[in-house]
Amino acid sequence: MPVKVDEVVEDGKGLDQAMGNHKDVILAKGEGQKKRDKLEAAVNDLVRKNTAQVNAQNALEQRTKDQDEVMRAALENISQVQNAAKSAFEGDKIKQKEFKIGTSKPTAVKGMITLLDYFTGIVQKYSDILLANGMTQSDIDEVSAVYAKLVTADAIQENAKKLRNAATKTRDAALASLKRTIGATRSYAKVVFKNDKAALEEFKSISRARGRSRTKPPGSSTGQPQG
Fold first, then answer.
1. Percent of the chain surpassing pLDDT 70
2. Cα–Cα distance for residue pair 12/186, rounded to 1 Å
3. What DSSP letter does each residue of 55-78 carry, written as one string?
4. What φ, ψ does residue 119 adopt, rounded to 5°?
5. Can you tell me the distance from the alpha carbon of 50 to that of 48, in angstroms, rounded to the nearest whole number?
6. With contact defined as beta carbons under 8 Å apart, do 30 and 188 qualify?
7. What is the C-alpha separation between 162 and 184, in angstroms, rounded?
8. Which of 134-139's residues contact partners 24+ apart within 8 Å by CB, and which partners?
């Protein structure tokens, strides 16, 4: 889990444990059991939605990796076409310009899709010349095949990104909900255990307790030792 989510879940579980430790009291004080049930439900909801978000993020990373592999294949394919064109049209700047020789290749997927779309027409137009300069028919056919693969990979990756974004929003909403529930539960405990300092300690935030433990005790010095 991300650190923030992990800490809030741990805080919620600790608070639930404190409620359990004083079950008899909360059963007799207002709607204590309902508050505990709500807390447990909020913790479990966040855990589930965080897991879904992590899975969505992993899926997106895999789809991006797949897309990157097609991008590499596209670059290799276009370079092969351009090398054949250089062989065929040595010294012919107009023809080389038609094959985009000397121009930088796009690094963005959308730009590469546009370039591949252009090259599918070029390789068909000059197929006989390209075949005479080292390419095979399967090489020429691969231009349109890679174009189709990249269009598909881009669509899948974009959809995975949308699913990840939606899962993140859902997870963040559950995180905010649990924080509110923890706050309300802790406020309830302050009322119920106002005369029981030992019990109130159990209901304090774990993260705050850790923060205090890292604080230097009064009178400590960060300077050089005194002689």
1. 89
2. 10
3. HHHHHHHHHHHHHHHHHHHHHHHH
4. -70, -25
5. 5
6. yes
7. 33
8. 134/83, 134/84, 134/87, 135/80, 135/81, 135/84, 139/77, 139/80, 139/81
CA distance 93 to 3: 58
- What is the residue type of 51? T
**Residue matched to tokens 């895999």:** 62
- pLDDT given for residue 3 in this prediction: 66
Query: Which two three-digit tokens encode residue 43?
Result: 């913790």
Token pair of 178 as six digits? 């649990």
179 burial level (CB within 10 Å; 0-12, 13-18, 19+)? middle
What pLDDT score was predicted for residue 215? Answer: 47
Q: 154 φ, ψ to 5°? A: -65, -45
Q: What is the distance between the alpha carbons of residues 27 and 22, in angstroms, rounded to a whole number?
A: 9
Residue showing tokens 């899709």: 113
Q: What is the pLDDT of residues 48-64, one digit of tens each?
A: 999 999 999 999 999 99
Query: Does residue 2 carry a pLDDT above 90?
Result: no
Rounded Cα–Cα distance for residues 51 and 36 (Å): 23
CA torsion angle 193 198 199 203 (round to 10): 110
Question: pLDDT category, 75, cuts 50, 70, 90?
Answer: very high
CB 130 within 8 A of CB 140: yes
Record the pTM: 0.80
